Amino acid sequence: MAGQLEGKVALVTGGSSGIGRATALAFAREGAKIVIADVNVEGGKETSHHVKEASGEAIFVKVDVTKAGEVEAMVNKAVEIYGQLDCAFNNAEVVPRELVRTADCSEDDWVRVIDINLKGLFLCMKYELRQMLKQGGGTIVNTASAYGLVGGGNREMGLSAYVASKHGVVGQTKATALEYGEANIRVNAVCPGHIRTPLIVPDTGLDPEVEKQFNARYPAGRIGEPEEVAEVVVWLCSDSASFVTGHALSVCGGYVG
Questions:
Q1: Active site positions, annotated
Q2: Please, are residues 111 and 165 in contact by the beta-carbon 8 Å criterion?
Q3: How many CB atoms lie within 10 A of CB 210?
Q4: pLDDT means per 10 residues in the chain (257 residues)?
Q5: What DSSP assignment string belongs to 52-121?
Q6: Cα–Cα distance between 118 and 222 in angstroms, integer?
Q7: pLDDT tens for residues 121-173?
Q8: Exposed e or buried b for every residue in 130-158, given b needs 16+ CB within 10 A?
Q9: pLDDT, tens digit, for every residue of 182-198?
Q10: CATH assignment of 9-251?
């Protein structure tokens, strides 16, 4: 039986680990050829290796999503190697270096978070859309966050730049979906809660007490797994979601309920 994305070409930014890696593997399982992009060369090549081990086809491209020239080259490379670009998962993101309140947040850290999470998204969509317009359509999914739908909770500290960037991702997704709906280009966002990725969970694992505190926030009683987000991204990129665009879909175990 053919996969949901058989014959498609899919791009994954932030593909070196976590949700990006899980989505690359899910895309490959569904028949897509994968372009994995990240600043982390070692991790990106490792993801490519995992895809090939699973009998998929993938290349890795090093890219800094805040640099227009590198983003344009990334899209051009996808087209050069595979001839088209059907699906794009814009997943590159960072969190603040310091968890401090707004009045104590450094300008450098604020700019860094906004540059990667929001400017980077704009640049990726800019060049992805140009290619998709040439070929008559495509699908884009952007990684926002449950914190792109709420304020992060009044007890949260150090997240104002991240929350602002993710609200921006949701807004940019909705605006772009309106602009390109008639061009057969669908644009959606996923809004994960806490997911077991390197951004949340250190190599040594979560301290049991910290994990207990995380789990208590979720009606589902636990944090999520990267594969659970990946399956939603696959669905949004597939023909099964053909009438879904401009939507910010929460994948957060009921946190935004």
A1: 162
A2: no
A3: 12
A4: 92 98 98 98 98 96 98 98 98 92 93 98 98 98 96 71 96 98 98 90 79 88 96 98 98 90
A5: HHTT-EEEEEE--TT-HHHHHHHHHHHHHHHS---EEEE------SS---GGG--HHHHHHHHIIIIIHH
A6: 28
A7: 999 999 999 999 999 999 999 999 999 999 875 565 678 999 999 999 999 99
A8: ebbeeeeebbbbbbbbbbbbbebeeeeeb
A9: 999 999 999 999 999 98
A10: 3.40.50.720
Give the global pTM.
Answer: 0.95
C-alpha span between 225 and 194 (Å, rounded): 9
Sequence length of the chain is 257
Computed on alpha carbons and rounded to an integer, the radius of gyration of the chain in Å comes to 17
Residue 65: CB partners within 8 Å, gap ≥ 6? 13, 37, 71, 90, 92, 116, 120, 121, 123, 124
Q: What does the pLDDT read at residue 49?
A: 97
Taking the C-alpha atoms of residue 73 and residue 62, their distance in angstroms, rounded to an integer, is 10
pLDDT of residue 153: 56
* Residue 119: C-alpha distances to residues 64, 95, 225 (Å): 11, 15, 27
Pure H helices in the chain? 18-29, 41-53, 68-82, 107-114, 120-135, 160-180, 208-216, 226-237
Spatial distance between the Cα atoms of 85 and 76, rounded to a whole number of angstroms = 9
Tokens of 8: 């498609």
Q: What is the phi/psi pair of residue 178, to 5°?
A: -65, -40
Tokens of 107: 């300008």
